[in-house]
Each structure stands twice: as C-alpha cells, then as structure tokens.
Design brief:
- By secondary structure, the protein is α+β, with helices and mostly antiparallel strands.
- It folds into 2 domains: 187 residues, DNA primase, PRIM domain; 142 residues, no CATH class.
- It is 38% helix and 21% strand.
- The protein is built from 11 helices and 14 strands.
- The protein has a 4-stranded antiparallel beta sheet with strand order 2-1-4-8.
C-alpha cells in the first residue's frame, strides 16, 4: 500500500511521518474535534499530508524524488455536492476515493468546499500526475494543484457548529497507466497545446509609455517583476486547468487563457480566447496591462498613480524626489542660459 508524507501541522519542516490509505480513511471518518475555533485558527492545528512519499515537502525535494502516490482535488465554492462528485468519479471508472468538506465549508460567505483523494494502485511520475491533475481540474472546475506539486492538504477537523460531510468509495485503486482517464488527459493536453500554438502567433501589445526623468525607476517594470503570473491570476479568481486558466467571468468549462513565453524577448505575457474576459484584447499583454484592465477599467494614468502610491511607496517617493531634482536642474539651466544671453 502506498504512503503519503504526513505532518502534525503546516509548521512541520522536518521529522515527517507517513500514513497509508487505510489510515487516511480513518482520519476522514473520525476527524479531530477542535471545538469553538474559527476555520482560520483551525488550520494551524490541523494535520497535513502531501501527494507524495518524498522525504520532505519542499518543491525541489518533491520533484527530485518524483514519486506521486495520491491524486487530490481542491473544490472551492463549487456547485457540486457529495453525491454529484462521487457520481462523476464513478462515471470515470474511479472507484476508490475519499471526499470530505473543509473547515470553511458553508461558513460565512463560503460555498461548498470539498477535498477529494483518489487512491492509486501504483505510484506515478510528476509528468503523469500533472497531466491527470490538470484534466480532472478541468472536469470538476477545480483549482489545478499540478502547478504546486509540493502543496500540502489539510486533513479535516470538526468545529463547533460546522456541517462536516464525507463520502468514501470502497472500490479498487486506480491503475493510471491502463486507464481511459490517462488517454483523456493526453487528449485534453494536446488540445490545450494546439490552442497555445495558435496564441503564440498573436501580436504583442507595446508597453505603456512613460517618461522617466533623471534616475526615476519604472513602476511598470516594478509591477512586471513583482508578481508571478500564477499567483496574480489566482488572486483575481482564475482557476488553473492544465496549461491554461479559466477566467472568473467564463461560463464555459474549458480554460482558454494562457501564459505565453515570447520567442523574441523571453518575457511571459497573457493571452485569452474568452469573449467574456475583459483582458481578451486580441494581443498578448504584460502584468501591468492585465492589472489596469482588471482593476482600473483601462485607465493607465490612474492605475500608474494609485499602484505607485499603494504598492511601491518607496519607489514612488524616490521618483517624486527625482522629479523635483530634474525640475530644479531645468530652472537652474534656464537661469544660467538667461544670464549668458
């Protein structure tokens, strides 16, 4: 039976233990009762597992170990319930699974939140694991965990007044290598790759022009360097699916927003095929363009000022100082030239 890296909390960095499928099932059936804690506070006291039996949970170690022992899904604010999730899994010939609600399930303004674990008959490589994770994320409109192979999963806990739910599939473990699931995942990946190749031929939007005076620093360059595309997109409500992202406005199930690496300057830019996406401009855009379209309705001047003041205050102060120095130099030069005449 395969094992999964286990820690008493997310703070554990060494001396990990391992649990198997049977032990994981027991933890789903009988979660630790933490009483009157909030869902946020409960995280610090919740045990965690990983989808691998690597020695620790760092990304480098997990990828070098390259042995994935569990498929998992994060379903946040989903319209699905336990039965519909189970029915979908069974329809895909996945018969051994665990589904449980999270501590924040239906709490406050949160909707249905579930975690799904799929038992594997044999371990798989990251390449296969990421392929299957991406496809299942598309099917369930879930967050694609394949982009974070080191990500941990919080095991369930009971809280006062919660609505904990779980369901267990007792069939045979999934043999990924001989499954229709893997074939479908390959076909899905090939379709996404074709979409990426089409997008790669789209023109690149020229960067928004700003005049830098003296030793001023470009706020646009700072924005483009400060964020990763993945985290930026997640912060705006996108969901990762394989090599693509699904915008929050999309009513389709298939992600059609891509991060493309330019063959000319090596920079990563965003391109979207979604008609409902405000960032689907027909050209490839950078992170600053994306933020301006998403948060400032395309008003570049307002965005530049507010982003500088709010997120890059030190750079903003430096640029103001350089502006004053430049203006003073201009006045001095004018006076000097006037005196010579």
């Amino acid at each position: 039976m395969l094992n999964f890296l286990h820690g008493k909390s997310h703070n554990v960095t060494a001396d990990f233990t391992y649990i198997n499928w049977h032990e994981l099932k027991l933890k789903i059936e009988n979660p630790l009762n933490l009483g009157a804690l909030t869902a946020k506070d409960a995280k610090a006291k919740s045990a965690v597992i990983a989808a691998t039996d690597a020695p620790n949970k760092t990304k480098d170690t997990v990828l070098k170990h390259d042995n994935f022992t569990l498929i998992r899904l994060d379903l946040d604010d989903t319209k699905l319930d336990l039965e519909s999730i189970a029915d979908t899994l069974e329809g895909m010939a996945i018969h051994s699974y665990l589904i449980h609600s999270t501590a924040s399930h239906q709490q406050g303004d949160k909707g249905n939140r579930y975690r799904v674990y799929i038992q594997l008959a044999a371990s798989i490589t990251y390449e296969v694991w990421a392929l299957v994770e991406g496809y299942l994320s598309y099917i369930f409109m879930a967050d694609d965990c394949a982009k974070r192979p080191q990500q941990i999963m919080y095991l369930p806990v009971r809280l006062k007044g919660d609505s904990y739910q779980y369901k267990i599939g007792e069939g045979e473990a999934l043999n990924v290598d001989n499954s229709n699931l893997l074939q479908d995942a390959h076909a899905f990946s090939a379709e996404q790759q074709q979409q990426i190749e089409q997008a790669n031929h789209k023109p690149i939007k020229p960067p928004y022009k700003t005049e830098l005076l003296g030793k001023q620093v470009s706020i646009i360059d700072a924005v483009n360097s400060a964020y990763s595309w993945h985290e930026l997109l997640l912060s705006y409500g996108y969901k990762a699916q394989g090599k693509a992202y699904l915008p929050p406005e999309s009513t389709s199930k298939q992600a059609g927003a891509h991060i493309l690496t330019s063959h000319t300057d090596g920079k990563e830019r965003y391109y979207s095929h979604h008609e409902s996406d405000p960032c689907a401009t027909g050209v490839c855009i950078d992170k600053f363009d994306f933020i301006v379209l998403r948060s400032y309705q395309g008003d570049y001047k307002r965005a530049l000022k507010q982003v500088a003041e709010t997120y890059f205050s030190d750079l903003h102060k430096h640029n103001l100082k350089e502006y004053k120095i430049h203006k003073q130099n201009q006045r001095t030069h004018s006076l000097f030239m006037g005196a010579k005449l």
